[in-house]
Structure of inositol-phosphate phosphatase:
Amino acid sequence: MTVLPSPPARIEPALVSRALDVAGRLANDAADVITATAGRGARPEPSESPFDWVSDTGRTLERHTRRVLAEQFAGTPVFGEEFGEQFDGEHGRGEQKSRFRWSVDPVDGTANYVAGLPWCAYSLAMLDEHGPVVGVVADPYRTQIYAAARDRGMRANGTPVRLPENTEIRGGIVCTELTRNGPWPGMDRFITNAAGAQVGVRLLGSPALAITQVALGHAVAAVLDDYQEWDVAGALALATESGATVLDRRGEPDRLPRDGLLVAAPGAAAHVHDWWQKATSRDAEAPAPRSVLD
């Protein structure tokens, strides 16, 4: 497997430390709000898809995140689930040029949050042209804050996390998620391919937590066919720093794939990518040839 080269540009250590500190405090704030309000009279407004709710909590948390980031990192653009791209709290695309950007999903797994199901997260990442520099994911229901910074490793509530060099995939779990319109093309075949290798597939409703389970060693892989940057950026920082492999749809290493991604524990990536590729290839989609006896 090709190894990604280290980014050539040096980042000031003090900046990374400050970004980690600010992101961690925002994650703690969000975790408190989510646990206090989940499933308790929330009134979501449905958007285009019943799988993609918008809630007042999401808007409130994103506004709070933007206010803090505008104070601490003036001029750095913020991309978010609820309000798109803004500069210093102002709507619309700005003219500032920044080496970094922030990407936030205030409630990843909003449908679960609205229903009171204990599986959603707050995700925040600072990125540069090479991918995530700093990432945090708050898992409110398990009272965990996961954090990582480039070349500094991953931590869960302050405890270092590092995946073993090889992972046994048989009997393991692969996470995936629906798209906004339901199952992704080939999803049924992917599940069948995984089952043939005695691996289970789970859809839990939060892309950030799906990737985080790989970073923690709970799942052998996560495959996402459709997502936004803010869905995955924070968790990809965790995965990379824990030692997981991150590939794009073609199977090429990429710190922040734009169109389809695979995150896998060491030793599992080739197997899972093979199931994914076979499930989505044109040959797999074509009908089986008819027998002359039919």
Q: What stands out?
A: The mean pLDDT is 87. The CA atoms of residues 251 and 270 lie 8 Å apart.
